[in-house]
Protein backbone atom coordinates (compact mmCIF):
# COMPACT_ATOMS: atom_id res chain seq x y z
CA UNK A 1 0.00 0.00 0.00
CA UNK A 2 2.85 2.37 0.72
CA UNK A 3 3.80 2.70 -2.93
CA UNK A 4 0.33 3.56 -4.13
CA UNK A 5 -0.03 6.95 -5.70
CA UNK A 6 -1.64 9.66 -3.58
CA UNK A 7 -5.30 9.92 -4.46
CA UNK A 8 -7.45 13.02 -4.73
CA UNK A 9 -8.97 12.02 -1.38
CA UNK A 10 -5.54 12.46 0.20
CA UNK A 11 -5.14 16.02 -1.05
CA UNK A 12 -8.65 17.04 -0.03
CA UNK A 13 -8.18 15.59 3.46
CA UNK A 14 -4.69 17.05 3.78
CA UNK A 15 -6.11 20.49 3.03
CA UNK A 16 -8.90 19.86 5.57
CA UNK A 17 -6.33 18.81 8.17
CA UNK A 18 -4.21 21.90 7.48
CA UNK A 19 -7.29 24.10 7.97
CA UNK A 20 -8.02 22.30 11.23
CA UNK A 21 -4.50 22.96 12.51
CA UNK A 22 -4.82 26.61 11.47
CA UNK A 23 -8.14 26.73 13.33
CA UNK A 24 -6.45 25.31 16.44
CA UNK A 25 -3.36 27.50 16.43
CA UNK A 26 -4.43 30.64 14.54
CA UNK A 27 -6.22 32.43 17.37
CA UNK A 28 -3.53 31.41 19.87
CA UNK A 29 -0.84 32.97 17.71
CA UNK A 30 -2.96 36.12 17.42
CA UNK A 31 -2.84 36.71 21.17
CA UNK A 32 0.81 35.72 21.23
CA UNK A 33 1.58 38.51 18.76
CA UNK A 34 -0.77 41.01 20.39
CA UNK A 35 0.82 40.53 23.81
CA UNK A 36 3.80 42.45 22.39
CA UNK A 37 1.45 45.35 21.60
CA UNK A 38 2.91 48.84 22.02
CA UNK A 39 1.99 50.89 25.08
CA UNK A 40 -0.79 52.79 23.29
CA UNK A 41 -2.15 49.74 21.45
CA UNK A 42 -5.49 48.09 22.10
CA UNK A 43 -7.03 44.64 22.15
CA UNK A 44 -7.04 44.17 18.38
CA UNK A 45 -4.72 44.51 15.42
CA UNK A 46 -2.91 46.51 14.16
CA UNK A 47 0.14 46.55 16.41
CA UNK A 48 0.97 50.05 17.64
CA UNK A 49 4.66 49.39 17.90
CA UNK A 50 6.31 46.53 19.73
CA UNK A 51 6.98 46.49 23.45
CA UNK A 52 7.28 44.37 26.54
CA UNK A 53 5.12 46.89 28.38
CA UNK A 54 2.24 44.48 29.04
CA UNK A 55 4.52 41.79 30.38
CA UNK A 56 5.99 44.30 32.82
CA UNK A 57 2.43 45.35 33.63
CA UNK A 58 1.67 41.78 34.58
CA UNK A 59 3.87 41.97 37.64
CA UNK A 60 2.37 45.17 39.00
CA UNK A 61 -0.20 44.32 41.61
CA UNK A 62 -2.74 46.97 40.65
CA UNK A 63 -3.05 45.88 37.04
CA UNK A 64 -3.95 42.25 37.56
CA UNK A 65 -5.11 40.96 40.91
CA UNK A 66 -2.50 38.67 42.31
CA UNK A 67 -0.72 37.05 39.40
CA UNK A 68 2.35 35.76 41.28
CA UNK A 69 0.37 34.30 44.16
CA UNK A 70 -2.27 32.64 42.01
CA UNK A 71 0.39 31.19 39.72
CA UNK A 72 2.22 29.71 42.72
CA UNK A 73 -1.00 28.19 44.08
CA UNK A 74 -1.91 26.68 40.71
CA UNK A 75 1.60 25.28 40.35
CA UNK A 76 1.65 23.64 43.79
CA UNK A 77 -1.90 22.37 43.39
CA UNK A 78 -1.03 20.93 39.96
CA UNK A 79 1.96 19.10 41.40
CA UNK A 80 -0.09 17.73 44.31
CA UNK A 81 -2.79 16.52 41.93
CA UNK A 82 -0.16 15.02 39.63
CA UNK A 83 1.52 12.95 42.36
CA UNK A 84 -1.75 11.65 43.81
CA UNK A 85 -3.19 10.93 40.35
CA UNK A 86 -0.17 8.87 39.30
CA UNK A 87 -0.04 6.81 42.52
CA UNK A 88 -3.78 6.22 42.90
CA UNK A 89 -4.26 5.41 39.19
CA UNK A 90 -1.37 2.97 39.23
CA UNK A 91 -2.73 1.20 42.31
CA UNK A 92 -6.23 1.08 40.84
CA UNK A 93 -4.82 -0.20 37.53
CA UNK A 94 -3.08 -3.02 39.42
CA UNK A 95 -6.28 -3.79 41.32
CA UNK A 96 -8.35 -4.02 38.12
CA UNK A 97 -6.02 -6.71 36.78
CA UNK A 98 -7.73 -9.12 39.15
CA UNK A 99 -11.35 -9.79 39.86
CA UNK A 100 -12.68 -8.28 43.04
CA UNK A 101 -16.08 -7.48 44.47
CA UNK A 102 -17.28 -4.07 43.41
CA UNK A 103 -14.78 -3.79 40.55
CA UNK A 104 -17.50 -2.98 38.03
CA UNK A 105 -19.16 -0.51 40.36
CA UNK A 106 -15.85 1.26 40.99
CA UNK A 107 -15.10 1.35 37.28
CA UNK A 108 -18.43 2.97 36.51
CA UNK A 109 -17.97 5.37 39.43
CA UNK A 110 -14.75 6.50 37.74
CA UNK A 111 -16.60 6.91 34.43
CA UNK A 112 -19.35 8.82 36.24
CA UNK A 113 -16.69 11.14 37.62
CA UNK A 114 -15.88 12.01 34.02
CA UNK A 115 -19.43 12.74 32.90
CA UNK A 116 -20.91 14.49 35.95
CA UNK A 117 -20.98 18.20 35.05
CA UNK A 118 -18.08 19.94 36.75
CA UNK A 119 -20.22 22.72 38.20
CA UNK A 120 -22.29 20.10 40.04
CA UNK A 121 -19.15 18.72 41.67
CA UNK A 122 -18.09 22.25 42.51
CA UNK A 123 -21.46 23.02 44.08
CA UNK A 124 -21.63 19.69 45.90
CA UNK A 125 -18.20 19.95 47.48
CA UNK A 126 -18.88 23.56 48.40
CA UNK A 127 -22.12 22.61 50.18
CA UNK A 128 -20.52 19.59 51.92
CA UNK A 129 -17.71 21.75 53.30
CA UNK A 130 -20.19 24.39 54.40
CA UNK A 131 -22.40 21.85 56.21
CA UNK A 132 -19.47 20.09 57.88
CA UNK A 133 -18.17 23.47 58.97
CA UNK A 134 -14.88 23.31 57.10
CA UNK A 135 -13.44 26.28 55.29
CA UNK A 136 -12.96 25.54 51.59
CA UNK A 137 -9.37 26.08 50.46
CA UNK A 138 -7.48 25.41 47.27
CA UNK A 139 -5.38 22.70 48.96
CA UNK A 140 -8.36 20.79 50.42
CA UNK A 141 -11.70 21.18 48.64
CA UNK A 142 -10.29 22.32 45.28
CA UNK A 143 -7.68 19.58 45.52
CA UNK A 144 -10.41 16.95 45.88
CA UNK A 145 -12.49 18.56 43.14
CA UNK A 146 -9.55 18.41 40.73
CA UNK A 147 -8.92 14.75 41.57
CA UNK A 148 -12.46 13.86 40.46
CA UNK A 149 -11.46 15.14 37.01
CA UNK A 150 -7.87 13.80 36.73
CA UNK A 151 -8.34 10.37 38.35
CA UNK A 152 -10.80 8.98 35.78
CA UNK A 153 -8.36 9.89 33.00
CA UNK A 154 -5.51 8.25 34.91
CA UNK A 155 -7.54 5.15 35.74
CA UNK A 156 -8.80 4.72 32.17
CA UNK A 157 -5.26 5.10 30.81
CA UNK A 158 -3.89 2.53 33.29
CA UNK A 159 -6.82 0.27 32.48
CA UNK A 160 -5.93 0.44 28.78
CA UNK A 161 -2.23 -0.11 29.52
CA UNK A 162 -2.80 -3.21 31.63
CA UNK A 163 -5.31 -4.55 29.08
CA UNK A 164 -2.42 -4.78 26.62
CA UNK A 165 0.16 -5.88 29.17
CA UNK A 166 1.24 -9.48 28.71
CA UNK A 167 1.70 -11.37 31.99
CA UNK A 168 4.40 -13.44 30.23
CA UNK A 169 7.08 -10.93 31.31
CA UNK A 170 6.16 -11.26 34.95
CA UNK A 171 5.99 -15.04 34.69
CA UNK A 172 9.45 -15.08 33.10
CA UNK A 173 10.83 -12.87 35.88
CA UNK A 174 9.25 -15.09 38.52
CA UNK A 175 10.63 -18.21 36.85
CA UNK A 176 14.06 -16.63 37.05
CA UNK A 177 13.60 -16.31 40.79
CA UNK A 178 12.51 -12.70 41.17
CA UNK A 179 10.27 -11.87 44.11
CA UNK A 180 7.00 -10.10 43.41
CA UNK A 181 8.47 -6.80 44.54
CA UNK A 182 11.51 -7.28 42.26
CA UNK A 183 9.22 -8.22 39.37
CA UNK A 184 7.16 -5.09 39.95
CA UNK A 185 10.12 -2.71 40.28
CA UNK A 186 12.42 -4.15 37.61
CA UNK A 187 9.96 -5.53 35.05
CA UNK A 188 6.49 -3.98 35.29
CA UNK A 189 7.41 -0.45 36.35
CA UNK A 190 9.97 0.23 33.58
CA UNK A 191 7.54 -1.09 30.97
CA UNK A 192 4.70 1.16 32.01
CA UNK A 193 6.90 4.16 32.91
CA UNK A 194 6.07 6.16 29.72
CA UNK A 195 2.35 5.74 30.40
CA UNK A 196 2.82 6.82 34.01
CA UNK A 197 4.62 9.95 32.83
CA UNK A 198 1.69 10.55 30.48
CA UNK A 199 -0.76 10.18 33.38
CA UNK A 200 1.37 12.66 35.34
CA UNK A 201 1.21 15.17 32.47
CA UNK A 202 -2.58 14.82 32.31
CA UNK A 203 -2.85 15.20 36.07
CA UNK A 204 -0.77 18.34 36.12
CA UNK A 205 -2.15 20.15 33.07
CA UNK A 206 -5.80 19.29 33.73
CA UNK A 207 -5.45 20.65 37.26
CA UNK A 208 -3.36 23.65 36.22
CA UNK A 209 -6.06 24.72 33.73
CA UNK A 210 -9.10 23.59 35.68
CA UNK A 211 -11.60 26.23 36.37
CA UNK A 212 -15.23 25.13 36.72
CA UNK A 213 -14.40 22.72 39.53
CA UNK A 214 -12.41 25.36 41.39
CA UNK A 215 -15.15 27.95 41.23
CA UNK A 216 -16.96 27.06 44.48
CA UNK A 217 -14.10 25.23 46.14
CA UNK A 218 -11.05 27.48 46.10
CA UNK A 219 -11.92 29.42 49.24
CA UNK A 220 -10.32 32.80 49.88
CA UNK A 221 -7.47 32.62 47.41
CA UNK A 222 -7.83 32.31 43.66
CA UNK A 223 -6.01 29.87 41.43
CA UNK A 224 -4.63 31.19 38.14
CA UNK A 225 -7.56 30.18 35.87
CA UNK A 226 -10.00 31.87 38.28
CA UNK A 227 -7.84 34.98 38.21
CA UNK A 228 -7.84 34.97 34.40
CA UNK A 229 -11.60 34.40 34.29
CA UNK A 230 -12.11 37.40 36.52
CA UNK A 231 -9.94 39.43 34.20
CA UNK A 232 -11.99 38.60 31.10
CA UNK A 233 -14.79 40.79 32.41
CA UNK A 234 -12.89 43.75 33.81
CA UNK A 235 -9.53 44.02 32.06
CA UNK A 236 -9.56 45.75 28.71
CA UNK A 237 -5.85 46.08 27.96
CA UNK A 238 -3.44 43.66 26.27
CA UNK A 239 -2.15 42.68 29.71
CA UNK A 240 -4.75 39.92 29.38
CA UNK A 241 -2.91 38.63 26.31
CA UNK A 242 0.44 38.89 28.07
CA UNK A 243 -0.95 36.69 30.82
CA UNK A 244 -2.28 34.29 28.17
CA UNK A 245 1.10 34.15 26.48
CA UNK A 246 2.96 33.50 29.73
CA UNK A 247 0.66 30.67 30.86
CA UNK A 248 0.55 29.11 27.38
CA UNK A 249 4.34 29.19 27.08
CA UNK A 250 4.51 27.59 30.51
CA UNK A 251 2.10 24.84 29.41
CA UNK A 252 4.18 24.24 26.28
CA UNK A 253 7.35 23.95 28.37
CA UNK A 254 5.67 21.40 30.65
CA UNK A 255 4.51 19.36 27.63
CA UNK A 256 7.96 19.51 25.99
CA UNK A 257 9.67 18.45 29.23
CA UNK A 258 7.25 15.54 29.57
CA UNK A 259 7.77 14.38 25.99
CA UNK A 260 11.52 14.64 26.57
CA UNK A 261 11.18 12.50 29.68
CA UNK A 262 9.12 9.89 27.82
CA UNK A 263 11.64 9.73 24.97
CA UNK A 264 14.52 9.53 27.44
CA UNK A 265 12.90 6.68 29.37
CA UNK A 266 12.14 4.87 26.11
CA UNK A 267 15.69 5.19 24.84
CA UNK A 268 17.13 4.25 28.20
CA UNK A 269 15.08 1.06 28.08
CA UNK A 270 16.05 0.28 24.51
CA UNK A 271 19.71 0.46 25.50
CA UNK A 272 19.30 -1.66 28.62
CA UNK B 1 0.23 -4.80 46.02
CA UNK B 2 1.22 -8.33 45.29
CA UNK B 3 4.62 -7.35 46.41
CA UNK B 4 4.87 -7.78 50.14
CA UNK B 5 2.69 -10.83 50.00
CA UNK B 6 4.96 -13.24 48.25
CA UNK B 7 8.03 -12.40 50.32
CA UNK B 8 7.45 -15.02 53.01
CA UNK B 9 7.46 -17.67 50.30
CA UNK B 10 11.04 -18.45 51.21
CA UNK B 11 9.98 -19.50 54.66
CA UNK B 12 7.17 -21.57 53.13
CA UNK B 13 5.71 -22.70 56.42
CA UNK B 14 2.09 -23.58 56.58
CA UNK B 15 0.73 -20.71 58.70
CA UNK B 16 2.60 -18.17 56.58
CA UNK B 17 1.22 -19.75 53.47
CA UNK B 18 -2.30 -19.46 54.75
CA UNK B 19 -1.74 -15.81 55.64
CA UNK B 20 -0.33 -15.13 52.21
CA UNK B 21 -3.38 -16.60 50.64
CA UNK B 22 -5.76 -14.31 52.48
CA UNK B 23 -3.56 -11.25 51.86
CA UNK B 24 -3.49 -12.05 48.16
CA UNK B 25 -7.25 -11.93 48.13
CA UNK B 26 -7.23 -8.63 50.00
CA UNK B 27 -4.65 -6.98 47.72
CA UNK B 28 -7.03 -5.64 45.05
CA UNK B 29 -9.21 -4.13 47.76
CA UNK B 30 -6.22 -2.34 49.29
CA UNK B 31 -5.05 -1.19 45.86
CA UNK B 32 -8.43 0.18 44.85
CA UNK B 33 -9.21 1.69 48.27
CA UNK B 34 -7.58 5.10 47.64
CA UNK B 35 -9.57 5.55 44.42
CA UNK B 36 -12.79 4.45 46.09
CA UNK B 37 -12.19 6.74 49.08
CA UNK B 38 -11.40 9.83 46.98
CA UNK B 39 -14.35 9.32 44.63
CA UNK B 40 -16.58 8.53 47.58
CA UNK B 41 -15.63 11.71 49.43
CA UNK B 42 -15.48 14.13 46.51
CA UNK B 43 -17.99 12.68 44.05
CA UNK B 44 -20.59 10.49 45.75
CA UNK B 45 -20.97 12.43 49.00
CA UNK B 46 -21.31 15.82 47.24
CA UNK B 47 -23.93 14.42 44.86
CA UNK B 48 -25.91 12.91 47.75
CA UNK B 49 -25.62 16.25 49.54
CA UNK B 50 -26.95 18.08 46.49
CA UNK B 51 -29.94 15.78 46.31
CA UNK B 52 -30.62 16.38 50.01
CA UNK B 53 -30.18 20.14 49.80
CA UNK B 54 -32.42 20.38 46.76
CA UNK B 55 -35.37 19.74 49.10
CA UNK B 56 -34.33 22.35 51.63
CA UNK B 57 -35.78 25.76 52.28
CA UNK B 58 -33.71 28.91 51.94
CA UNK B 59 -33.79 32.67 52.17
CA UNK B 60 -31.28 35.36 51.26
CA UNK B 61 -29.02 34.45 54.20
CA UNK B 62 -29.05 30.70 54.80
CA UNK B 63 -30.62 27.34 54.05
CA UNK B 64 -32.88 25.38 56.36
CA UNK B 65 -33.24 21.58 56.44
CA UNK B 66 -36.72 20.72 55.24
CA UNK B 67 -38.56 18.58 52.76
CA UNK B 68 -39.98 20.90 50.15
CA UNK B 69 -40.59 20.24 46.49
CA UNK B 70 -40.92 23.93 45.70
CA UNK B 71 -37.35 24.10 44.39
CA UNK B 72 -38.28 21.53 41.76
CA UNK B 73 -41.61 23.09 40.92
CA UNK B 74 -39.79 26.42 40.56
CA UNK B 75 -37.30 24.82 38.18
CA UNK B 76 -39.76 22.81 36.13
CA UNK B 77 -42.57 25.34 36.27
CA UNK B 78 -40.61 28.22 34.88
CA UNK B 79 -40.73 29.06 31.23
CA UNK B 80 -37.22 30.57 31.42
CA UNK B 81 -35.79 27.30 32.73
CA UNK B 82 -37.31 25.29 29.89
CA UNK B 83 -35.96 27.75 27.37
CA UNK B 84 -32.51 27.53 28.96
CA UNK B 85 -32.56 23.73 28.91
CA UNK B 86 -33.63 23.74 25.26
CA UNK B 87 -30.92 26.24 24.45
CA UNK B 88 -28.29 24.06 26.15
CA UNK B 89 -29.49 20.97 24.29
CA UNK B 90 -29.41 22.96 21.05
CA UNK B 91 -25.77 23.90 21.69
CA UNK B 92 -24.98 20.26 22.48
CA UNK B 93 -26.60 19.05 19.26
CA UNK B 94 -24.92 21.59 16.98
CA UNK B 95 -21.49 21.17 18.57
CA UNK B 96 -21.88 17.39 18.50
CA UNK B 97 -22.61 17.31 14.76
CA UNK B 98 -19.71 19.65 13.96
CA UNK B 99 -17.14 17.94 16.19
CA UNK B 100 -18.18 14.50 14.95
CA UNK B 101 -17.75 15.58 11.33
CA UNK B 102 -14.42 17.35 11.86
CA UNK B 103 -13.16 14.76 14.32
CA UNK B 104 -13.88 11.82 12.05
CA UNK B 105 -12.15 13.26 9.01
CA UNK B 106 -9.12 14.40 10.97
CA UNK B 107 -8.77 11.00 12.64
CA UNK B 108 -9.39 9.22 9.33
CA UNK B 109 -6.71 11.29 7.61
CA UNK B 110 -4.21 10.53 10.39
CA UNK B 111 -5.00 6.83 10.56
CA UNK B 112 -5.35 5.95 6.88
CA UNK B 113 -3.44 8.55 4.88
CA UNK B 114 -0.29 9.12 6.92
CA UNK B 115 2.06 6.31 6.18
CA UNK B 116 4.70 6.34 8.89
CA UNK B 117 3.94 5.83 12.55
CA UNK B 118 6.38 8.58 13.54
CA UNK B 119 4.57 11.13 11.35
CA UNK B 120 1.21 9.94 12.70
CA UNK B 121 2.39 10.55 16.24
CA UNK B 122 3.82 13.96 15.43
CA UNK B 123 0.61 15.14 13.73
CA UNK B 124 -1.50 13.64 16.51
CA UNK B 125 0.56 15.57 19.07
CA UNK B 126 0.07 18.75 17.05
CA UNK B 127 -3.67 18.20 17.52
CA UNK B 128 -3.34 17.32 21.20
CA UNK B 129 -1.11 20.12 22.49
CA UNK B 130 -3.75 22.90 22.50
CA UNK B 131 -5.97 20.63 24.60
CA UNK B 132 -3.34 20.81 27.34
CA UNK B 133 -3.41 24.61 27.50
CA UNK B 134 -5.90 26.82 29.29
CA UNK B 135 -9.49 26.77 27.99
CA UNK B 136 -10.09 30.35 29.02
CA UNK B 137 -7.03 31.60 27.17
CA UNK B 138 -8.15 29.70 24.09
CA UNK B 139 -11.54 31.39 24.35
CA UNK B 140 -10.04 34.84 24.80
CA UNK B 141 -7.85 34.23 21.78
CA UNK B 142 -10.92 34.55 19.54
CA UNK B 143 -11.48 38.17 20.60
CA UNK B 144 -8.79 39.72 18.34
CA UNK B 145 -9.94 37.45 15.50
CA UNK B 146 -13.71 37.88 15.66
CA UNK B 147 -14.10 41.27 17.32
CA UNK B 148 -15.63 44.35 15.75
CA UNK B 149 -12.18 45.52 14.68
CA UNK B 150 -10.81 42.00 14.61
CA UNK B 151 -8.85 40.26 11.89
CA UNK B 152 -11.81 38.87 9.98
CA UNK B 153 -13.89 42.03 10.05
CA UNK B 154 -11.03 44.34 9.10
CA UNK B 155 -10.05 42.02 6.25
CA UNK B 156 -13.63 41.84 4.94
CA UNK B 157 -14.11 45.61 5.17
CA UNK B 158 -10.73 46.25 3.61
CA UNK B 159 -11.53 43.99 0.69
CA UNK B 160 -14.83 45.78 0.27
CA UNK B 161 -16.88 42.61 0.77
CA UNK B 162 -18.97 44.14 3.53
CA UNK B 163 -19.70 47.86 4.03
CA UNK B 164 -19.30 47.74 7.81
CA UNK B 165 -18.03 45.19 10.39
CA UNK B 166 -20.26 42.17 10.95
CA UNK B 167 -21.66 42.39 14.47
CA UNK B 168 -22.59 38.77 15.09
CA UNK B 169 -19.09 37.30 14.83
CA UNK B 170 -18.27 37.89 18.49
CA UNK B 171 -20.62 37.91 21.49
CA UNK B 172 -23.22 35.79 19.78
CA UNK B 173 -24.40 32.20 19.65
CA UNK B 174 -22.21 31.77 16.60
CA UNK B 175 -19.16 32.66 18.70
CA UNK B 176 -20.25 30.24 21.44
CA UNK B 177 -20.55 27.34 18.99
CA UNK B 178 -17.26 28.22 17.29
CA UNK B 179 -15.38 28.36 20.58
CA UNK B 180 -16.93 25.09 21.77
CA UNK B 181 -15.94 23.33 18.56
CA UNK B 182 -12.48 24.81 19.01
CA UNK B 183 -12.26 23.57 22.60
CA UNK B 184 -13.85 20.15 22.30
CA UNK B 185 -13.06 18.66 18.86
CA UNK B 186 -9.99 16.96 20.29
CA UNK B 187 -12.22 14.90 22.55
CA UNK B 188 -13.71 13.47 19.36
CA UNK B 189 -10.45 13.08 17.43
CA UNK B 190 -8.66 11.04 20.09
CA UNK B 191 -11.14 8.16 20.61
CA UNK B 192 -11.97 7.90 16.90
CA UNK B 193 -8.26 7.87 16.01
CA UNK B 194 -7.78 5.16 18.63
CA UNK B 195 -10.47 2.89 17.15
CA UNK B 196 -9.39 3.55 13.55
CA UNK B 197 -5.82 2.55 14.39
CA UNK B 198 -7.10 -0.78 15.65
CA UNK B 199 -8.95 -1.68 12.46
CA UNK B 200 -7.28 -4.65 10.81
CA UNK B 201 -5.95 -3.31 7.50
CA UNK B 202 -6.51 -6.66 5.81
CA UNK B 203 -10.27 -6.01 6.14
CA UNK B 204 -9.87 -2.96 3.94
CA UNK B 205 -7.81 -4.91 1.43
CA UNK B 206 -10.32 -7.76 1.43
CA UNK B 207 -13.11 -5.30 0.69
CA UNK B 208 -11.07 -3.78 -2.15
CA UNK B 209 -10.30 -7.21 -3.57
CA UNK B 210 -13.97 -8.01 -3.46
CA UNK B 211 -14.54 -4.98 -5.67
CA UNK B 212 -15.63 -2.32 -3.22
CA UNK B 213 -15.02 1.27 -4.27
CA UNK B 214 -13.28 3.73 -1.96
CA UNK B 215 -16.58 5.12 -0.71
CA UNK B 216 -18.01 1.66 -0.19
CA UNK B 217 -15.00 0.68 1.92
CA UNK B 218 -15.44 3.84 3.94
CA UNK B 219 -19.20 3.48 4.36
CA UNK B 220 -19.49 -0.28 4.86
CA UNK B 221 -16.22 -1.22 6.56
CA UNK B 222 -14.52 1.69 8.29
CA UNK B 223 -17.52 3.70 9.49
CA UNK B 224 -19.24 0.78 11.29
CA UNK B 225 -15.94 -0.18 12.95
CA UNK B 226 -15.35 3.43 14.04
CA UNK B 227 -18.68 3.60 15.89
CA UNK B 228 -17.30 2.82 19.36
CA UNK B 229 -14.79 5.66 19.06
CA UNK B 230 -17.52 8.00 17.89
CA UNK B 231 -19.68 6.96 20.83
CA UNK B 232 -16.94 7.68 23.36
CA UNK B 233 -16.17 11.01 21.70
CA UNK B 234 -19.87 11.80 21.78
CA UNK B 235 -20.01 11.13 25.54
CA UNK B 236 -17.15 13.57 26.10
CA UNK B 237 -18.48 16.33 23.85
CA UNK B 238 -22.11 16.11 24.95
CA UNK B 239 -21.30 16.08 28.67
CA UNK B 240 -18.79 18.92 28.30
CA UNK B 241 -21.23 21.12 26.38
CA UNK B 242 -24.13 20.32 28.73
CA UNK B 243 -21.92 21.37 31.68
CA UNK B 244 -20.50 24.48 30.09
CA UNK B 245 -21.00 27.93 31.50
CA UNK B 246 -17.74 29.77 30.91
CA UNK B 247 -17.78 29.53 27.11
CA UNK B 248 -21.41 30.61 26.99
CA UNK B 249 -20.76 33.50 29.36
CA UNK B 250 -17.56 34.79 27.74
CA UNK B 251 -18.36 34.18 24.08
CA UNK B 252 -22.00 35.29 24.08
CA UNK B 253 -21.17 38.37 26.13
CA UNK B 254 -24.07 37.56 28.45
CA UNK B 255 -26.63 37.34 25.65
CA UNK B 256 -27.12 33.60 25.79
CA UNK B 257 -27.81 31.16 28.60
CA UNK B 258 -27.04 27.60 29.56
CA UNK B 259 -28.18 25.44 32.45
CA UNK B 260 -24.80 25.57 34.16
CA UNK B 261 -24.67 29.34 33.77
CA UNK B 262 -28.11 29.59 35.33
CA UNK B 263 -26.84 27.42 38.22
CA UNK B 264 -23.77 29.60 38.59
CA UNK B 265 -25.91 32.72 38.84
CA UNK B 266 -28.13 31.07 41.46
CA UNK B 267 -25.01 30.08 43.38
CA UNK B 268 -23.66 33.62 43.35
CA UNK B 269 -27.00 34.75 44.79
CA UNK B 270 -26.53 32.06 47.50
CA UNK B 271 -29.68 30.24 46.32
CA UNK B 272 -28.01 26.88 46.85
CA UNK B 273 -31.19 24.77 47.12
CA UNK B 274 -32.46 26.21 43.82
CA UNK B 275 -29.12 25.51 42.19
CA UNK B 276 -29.17 22.03 43.70
CA UNK B 277 -32.59 21.27 42.21
CA UNK B 278 -31.28 22.43 38.85
CA UNK B 279 -28.19 20.28 39.37
CA UNK B 280 -30.31 17.18 39.99
CA UNK B 281 -32.37 17.78 36.85
CA UNK B 282 -29.24 18.43 34.78
CA UNK B 283 -27.50 15.39 36.22
CA UNK B 284 -30.44 13.10 35.43
CA UNK B 285 -30.58 14.49 31.90
CA UNK B 286 -26.83 14.00 31.31
CA UNK B 287 -26.81 10.50 32.82
CA UNK B 288 -29.76 9.49 30.63
CA UNK B 289 -27.89 10.71 27.56
CA UNK B 290 -24.75 8.81 28.58
CA UNK B 291 -26.74 5.66 29.38
CA UNK B 292 -28.28 5.87 25.93
CA UNK B 293 -24.87 6.10 24.30
CA UNK B 294 -23.46 3.30 26.47
CA UNK B 295 -26.07 0.96 25.04
CA UNK B 296 -24.19 1.23 21.75
CA UNK B 297 -20.71 0.69 23.15
CA UNK B 298 -19.03 -1.25 25.96
CA UNK B 299 -16.30 1.12 27.16
CA UNK B 300 -14.39 -1.55 29.03
CA UNK B 301 -13.85 -3.45 25.80
CA UNK B 302 -12.73 -0.38 23.92
CA UNK B 303 -9.85 0.58 26.21
Descriptive notes:
The complex is a heterodimer of chains A (272) and B (303). Chain A has 272 residues and is an all-alpha fold. Chain A has two domains: 9-51, no CATH class; 63-271, MetI-like fold, CATH 1.10.3720. Chain A contains ten helices and no strands. Chain A has helices at residues 8-34, 53-58, 67-95, 103-115, 118-132, 141-163, 168-175, 180-209, 224-234, 239-271. In chain A, helix 4 packs across helix 6. The longest helix of chain A is centred in the C-terminal third of the chain and has 33 residues, at 239-271. Chain A is globular, with a radius of gyration of 23 Å. Chain A starts with 7 loop residues before the first helix and ends with a helix. Chain B is mainly α. Chain B folds into two domains: 1-53, no CATH class; 76-302, MetI-like fold, CATH 1.10.3720. In chain B, 74% of the residues lie in helices and 1% in strands. Chain B has a two-stranded antiparallel ribbon. In chain B, helix 3 packs across helix 14 (272-294) and helix 11 runs antiparallel to helix 14 (272-294). The relative contact order of chain B is 0.12. The model of chain B is unreliable at 1-19 (pLDDT under 50). Chains A and B meet through helix 1, helix 3, helix 4, helix 5 and helix 6 of A and helix 1, helix 2, helix 4, helix 5 and helix 6 of B.
Query: CATH topology of the largest domain in chain B, anyone?
Result: MetI-like fold
Strand fraction of chain A: under 5%
Most extensive interface: A-B, 98 and 90 residues
Helix content of chain B: over 70%
Shape of chain A: globular
Number of strands of chain A: 0
Radius of gyration of chain A: 23 Å
List keywords for this structure.
heterodimer, A: 272 residues, MetI-like fold, 10 helices, B: 303 residues, mainly alpha, 2 domains, two-stranded antiparallel ribbon, 15 helices, 74% helix, globular
